[in-house]
Amino acid sequence: RAQADVVEQRDLEAVDEELALDGERRGHAYYATIAATTTDAELRAIASTFADEEAEHVAELVKLLAACVA
After folding, report:
1. How many Å apart are CA 64 and CA 61, to the nearest integer?
2. pLDDT for 36-52, tens place per residue?
3. How far apart are alpha carbons 36 and 64 in whole angstroms?
4. pLDDT at residue 9, rounded to an integer
């Protein structure tokens, strides 16, 4: 049973990692869409900044996940 618990824990960690990455990607897409479609210049600038930040989060998370696998 202990080995099954270890495998189950790894599976849960993998799911958590995928959920985290998915959340960051969705956040980026959300803000990028607003930046690309709004006619409000102030909102466009804010959304663009947020989209850039989310893109950085995605890149950093991908890098961290790759380091965990290696």
Report:
1. 5
2. 999 999 999 999 999 99
3. 29
4. 59
